[in-house]
């Protein structure tokens, strides 16, 4: 049974002033002061928390973004395996941020789109000096409203299907062209 369905493809160009180590923090400041309807809704989406990434972007490069709908329900690790098999660049929060800033209107209506990375590259919460959960970034779209957040990621995390508020779940697949 097919677990991932092609939805659409588009390209984006990494801004010429892109710097991996400061990109997320600087965009959060822009979003907070924007008159647009976008919300950078997570204090966890910072350069410090997402400094590790499997694939680093380079200023000026062109990236092809493919959106796949998750059919049914699938463990998050299986979604990552699918992206690796498809030779996807795993960009985590940086990939999601670029889509939100440059191509948000390409996102499907009533959607929740995940930008995955390997577990060791994801933000991990520390409580009382003990490692806790990891978090995966996503963009939620409802009509003209876009929200950038994170969700817990552990061995039980399942993606896909419809969420409680009827949003379909998708994956971003990135590749250099």
What does this protein structure show overall?
The protein has 177 residues and is α+β, with helices and mostly antiparallel strands. It has one domain. The protein is 19% helix and 37% strand. The protein is built from three helices and ten strands, in the order E-H-E-E-E-H-H-E-E-E-E-E-E. Strand 6 and strand 7 form a beta hairpin.
Total separate domains:
1
Question: Helix amount, in percent?
Answer: 10-25%
| Helix-strand topology string | EHEEEHHEEEEEE
Uncertain regions: pLDDT < 50 for 5+ in a row? none
User: How big a fraction of the residues is strand?
Assistant: 35-45%
Radius of gyration: 15 Å
Quote the average pLDDT. 84
Helical segment count: 3
Helix/strand class: alpha+beta
Overall geometry: globular
N-to-C terminal Cα separation, in Å? 30 Å
The count of DSSP E runs of length 2 or more, i.e. the number of strands, is: 10
Please describe the biggest sheet, giving its number of strands, its sense, and whether it closes into a barrel.
8 strands, mixed
Short note summarizing the structure:
The chain has 177 residues and is α+β, with helices and mostly antiparallel strands. It has helices at 23-33, 76-85, 92-103; strands at residues 4-13, 39-40, 62-70, 74-75, 111-114, 123-127, 130-142, 145-153, 158-159, 168-176.
Question: Which descriptors apply to this entry?
Answer:
alpha+beta; globular; 8-stranded mixed sheet; two-stranded antiparallel ribbon; 3 helices; single chain; 177 residues
Topology of helices and strands:
Elements: E1 4-13, H1 23-33, E2 39-40, E3 62-70, E4 74-75, H2 76-85, H3 92-103, E5 111-114, E6 123-127, E7 130-142, E8 145-153, E9 158-159, E10 168-176
Parallel strand pairs: 2-8, 5-10
Antiparallel strand pairs: 1-3, 3-10, 4-9, 5-7, 6-7, 7-8
């Amino acid at each position: 049974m097919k677990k991932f369905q092609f939805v659409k493809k588009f390209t984006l160009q990494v801004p010429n002033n892109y710097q991996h180590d400061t990109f997320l923090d600087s965009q959060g400041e822009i979003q907070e002061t924007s008159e647009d309807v976008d919300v950078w809704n997570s204090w966890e989406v910072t350069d410090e928390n997402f400094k590790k990434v499997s694939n680093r972007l380079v200023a000026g490069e062109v990236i092809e973004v493919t959106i796949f709908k998750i059919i049914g329900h699938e463990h998050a690790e299986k979604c990552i395996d699918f992206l690796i098999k498809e030779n996807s660049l795993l960009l985590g929060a940086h990939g999601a941020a670029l889509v939100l800033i440059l191509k948000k209107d390409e996102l499907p209506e009533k959607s929740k789109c995940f930008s995955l990375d390997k577990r060791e590259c994801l933000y991990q919460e520390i409580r009382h000096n003990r490692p806790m959960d990891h978090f995966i970034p996503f963009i939620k779209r409802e009509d003209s409203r876009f929200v950038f957040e994170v969700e817990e990621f552990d061995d039980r995390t399942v993606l896909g299907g419809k969420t409680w508020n009827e949003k379909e779940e998708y994956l971003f697949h990135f590749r250099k062209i």
